[in-house]
Specification:
By secondary structure, the chain is of the alpha/beta class. It is built from nine helices and seven strands, in the order E-H-E-H-H-H-E-E-H-E-H-E-H-H-E-H. Strand 3 and strand 4 form a beta hairpin. Helix 1 runs parallel beside helix 9 and helix 4 crosses helix 5. The longest helix is centred in the last third of the chain and has 23 residues.
Length: about 220
């Protein structure tokens, strides 16, 4: 089979993280999530190689690629959007936001290995990659509420509002960097309802789609 990359965008508590993890296990590839990308975007982690000893990143290509892309020392960013780095040529200051940094990592990972990438607008970043399979995972609010109750202890109304706020932040982030609507199905190859299909059903469908598309 050709090299492939599966991108997974997911509503909060819809099961997208679990789908990505299980899919990676069954296909024998790495799975990279948003938290892992945030870790390699922190200067203090990159400077002391702290990330290299994290079990989630150890022995994966992610850390090596991140180090290659930013071989110069990185200043600690004060906000999540902007990194300022000193460029030797003409002593110019180059403003580079973390989205661009992570985009380079995602593109290089897709170029080097088959993998699963969760979040980080990966479907948009890889929209020109013919071997990318872009998936959106969603579920009805009742299903997501049941999943959320196992990790968040708050009143039902407060929890419902919290879930809506998290997805709103995801949509805002996606629109800010892509100019597209996060939930627009035209941006994806597959739209999967985890309440109807279950985690295993979603994994099986993605595997089948990979076989059909890439042989």
């Amino acid at each position: 089979m050709e090299k492939f990359v599966v991108t997974i965008a997911r509503e909060y508590c819809s099961g997208g993280q679990k789908i990505g993890t299980r899919l990676a296990e069954e296909l024998g590839v790495n799975c990279y999530n948003s938290e892992m990308f945030r870790l390699v975007s922190k200067n203090e982690n990159m400077q002391d190689d702290h990330v290299a000893h994290d079990d989630r990143i150890k022995d994966t290509l992610l850390f090596d690629v991140a180090k290659e892309i930013y071989s110069e020392p990185l200043p600690t960013p004060h906000i999540d959007d902007v990194l300022t780095t000193k460029i030797a040529d003409d002593d110019m200051i180059y403003i580079k936001n973390i989205y661009d940094y992570q985009s380079e990592i995602i593109a290089e990972l897709a170029n080097r290995e088959s993998c699963i990438i969760i979040g980080r607008c990966a479907n948009y970043i890889l929209k020109g990659n013919p071997n990318a399979i872009n998936v959106f995972v969603h579920a009805p609010i009742g299903f997501k509420m049941k999943r959320a109750q196992s990790r968040h202890y708050m009143p039902e109304a407060e929890l419902r509002n919290y879930l809506a706020k998290v997805d709103e932040r995801k949509a805002d982030y996606y629109f800010k960097y892509t100019g597209c609507e996060w939930t627009d199905i035209k941006n994806y190859d597959l739209s999967l309802n985890t309440e109807e299909l279950g985690i295993s059903g979603c994994v099986d469908l993605i595997k089948k789609f990979i076989e059909i598309k890439l042989g």
